[in-house]
Structures are given as structure tokens and as C-alpha cells.
Amino acid sequence: RLKTERKKKKKLVDVLGLVTNNLSNGKFRVKLENGVQVIAHLSGKIRQNRIKIVVGDKVTVELSPYDLTKGRIVYRHR
């Protein structure tokens, strides 16, 4: 089971972006470096460590190659 999970994670694309809007239920609108807007939710580790994300934060977003309109916020840059 672990090998398949690792394979899935390799297919993800990491992109830098800027949080532009705070939506409900821990979702955010993020403008990526290439100008595309995506809707991203918080990863489990960010929720677990209670890291606050506010409008204007630089974040790293993981995107699936299958659906480039949705993503997961995995890191907040300082």
C-alpha cells in the first residue's frame, strides 16, 4: 500500500501562488505564478499545526495533473 501512495504523490505538481480570497470551509482562491486562479484547501498538516493562512500569503500549492483547477495548500512561505 505504501508504494502506491508514494507513486501517486510523485505525479503531483508543486506551484507557488498568492492567496487572493478566503472562501468558506478552509478553502482559498489562489493566484498562481502563471496567472491561473485555482481553489485550494488546506493540507492535513497545516490544519493539525493550526497554521493560519490569510489573504496576501505566499503559499505552495500541490496540483493534480488531471484537474488543474483544484489544489492543496502544503506550505506557507514567510
From TrEMBL:
Pfam families cross-referenced by the UniProt entry: eIF-1a
GO CC term, one of those recorded: cytosol
S1-like domain ranges (all copies): 1-78
Keyword Protein biosynthesis: yes
Molecular function (Gene Ontology), one example: ribosome binding
SMART domains: S1 (SM00316)
UniProt KW keywords: Chloroplast, Initiation factor, Plastid, Protein biosynthesis
NCBIfam families, per database record: infA
Similarity field: Belongs to the IF-1 family.
Oligomeric and partner information: Component of the 30S ribosomal translation pre-initiation complex which assembles on the 30S ribosome in the order IF-2 and IF-3, IF-1 and N-formylmethionyl-tRNA(fMet); mRNA recruitment can occur at any time during PIC assembly.
Function: One of the essential components for the initiation of protein synthesis. Stabilizes the binding of IF-2 and IF-3 on the 30S subunit to which N-formylmethionyl-tRNA(fMet) subsequently binds. Helps modulate mRNA selection, yielding the 30S pre-initiation complex (PIC). Upon addition of the 50S ribosomal subunit IF-1, IF-2 and IF-3 are released leaving the mature 70S translation initiation complex.
Official protein name in the record: Translation initiation factor IF-1, chloroplastic
Taxonomic source organism: Atractomorpha echinata
The gene coding this protein: infA
